[in-house]
Amino acid sequence: MTSSPSPTIVQQPFQQTTEGSNKIEPYAPVEPYIQFLLPEIGRQFTEDPQIYTGSLVPQDSAQTLAARDLYGQVGDSAAALVPSYNQLFQNDLARATADPLQDSIYQAQTGVIANRARELTERDKQLAQEQAIQAGQFGLGSTALGELQALQQSKREEVVQKQLADSLAQAEQRRIAAGQRAPGFAQQALQAQLTPATLQEAIGQRVELKDQAALSDAARLAQQEQEARRAQLITMSNLYGGLAGLGSQTQMQQTSSGFSSSAVPGGPGIGSQLLGTAATIAPMIAASDVRLKKNIKFLRKLNNGVKVYSWNWNKKGWKIAKGEPTIGVIAQQVRKIIPEAVVKGSDGYFRVDYSKVGL
C-alpha cells in the first residue's frame, strides 16, 4: 500500500490594527501652581519690551575727518604736478624725434670744436713760420718743410673729426634716452591727473557705505518693536499650548503583522489544495515577479508545464505585494508558457492572472 505524500507547511502573512484613545490628566498636585503661573506669564509677556533705540552706526572720528582733508590736499598737490610732468614729456618727446645734428648740446660742442680748430690753425701758422726760419738755418729744403706742415694739418683734422663724431654719438645717446623717459613722464602726468578723482571716489564710496548703514539702522529701529511683540506672542502661545496639552486627548493606533502557518495535506491534488489555500486571501491578479521573492522552493509541476513554488517576499516585495500569499507561480516562467496570463504593472514588475494559469 502506497503512503500519501506528507503535508506541506504554508506560511501566510497577517496584519492587525488596533485603534483607541488615551486621555492624559494633569498631575493633580501641580494644578495650583499652573493656575498661579498663568497670570504671571500673561503679565510678563504683555509688558512693553525693552528696546535699544540708539544708533549702531559709528560717527566719524576726528582722525577720519583729518584724513579726509589730507586726501584732498594730496589730490591738489598731485594735480599741481601735472604741468611739470607734461613739460618733461614734451621736452623728451621733441628730443627723441629731432635730428641729432640739431641737438643744442651737440651744436654747442661743435662751436667749441670749431673755435679750438681755429686756434690750432693759428698756432700751426706760427709754428710753420718758425719751422721755415729754422729750415733756412739748418738747410732743409722746401719739400721737407711742406711734408711736415701737411702732416700737422692731417693730425689736426683727424682730432677735429674724432671730436665731432664723439659729440654726435653723445647727441644720439641723449635722443635715445629721451625716447625711453618720455612714456614714463606721460604715465606720471596721467597718474597725477587721475589722483584727485581716485581719492574723491574712495571718499565717496566710504560716505555711501556709511549712508547705507544708517538707512539699515533706521529700518531696524522702525521694525524691532513690532518684531519684539511678535516674539512675545509666539513664546506665550507656546507656553499656553504646552500647559493646555496636559489635558488633551491623544489618539492611539497600533499595528502588528507577521505570519501564520497552516498545513496543506498531501495527495494528488496538492497543487489545487495549495492554490486553494492561497486563493482564500489572494486576488485574481497577484504580484509574482521573481525579483520580489527570496527563499524560493519548488513544490510541484502542473500538467501544462507551469511550476508551483513557495517563497518569502523580499523588502521590495513586501512593499508591492502588501500581504499577498507566498505560494504560487513565477511570472517570468509563466510568461514563456502562457504569456496572456502575465501583465506588467506601472512599477515595472510582472503580475499573474491566476484564472488563466489552468489551476
Please tag this protein with its features.
2 domains, three-stranded antiparallel beta sheet, 359 residues, 17% strand, alpha+beta
Question: How are the elements arranged and paired?
Answer:
Layout: E1 8-23, H1 31-44, H2 62-80, H3 82-97, H4 104-138, H5 142-244, E2 249-264, H6 270-279, E3 285-287, E4 293-301, E5 307-313, H7 315-321, E6 327-328, H8 331-337, E7 342-344, E8 350-353
Antiparallel strand pairs: 1-2, 3-8, 4-5, 5-6, 7-8
Helix pairs in contact: 1-5, 2-5, 3-5, 4-5
What does this structure look like?
The structure is a single chain. It is built from eight helices and eight strands, in the order E-H-H-H-H-H-E-H-E-E-E-H-E-H-E-E. By secondary structure, it is an alpha+beta fold. A hairpin with a 5-residue loop joins strand 7 (342-344) and strand 8 (350-353). The longest helix is centred in the middle third of the chain and has 103 residues, at 142-244. It is elongated. Mean pLDDT is 75; it is low at 266-275 and 277-283. The protein has two domains: 62-225; 259-356, no CATH class. Helix 2 packs antiparallel against helix 5 (142-244), helix 3 packs across helix 5 and helix 4 runs antiparallel to helix 5. It has a three-stranded antiparallel beta sheet.
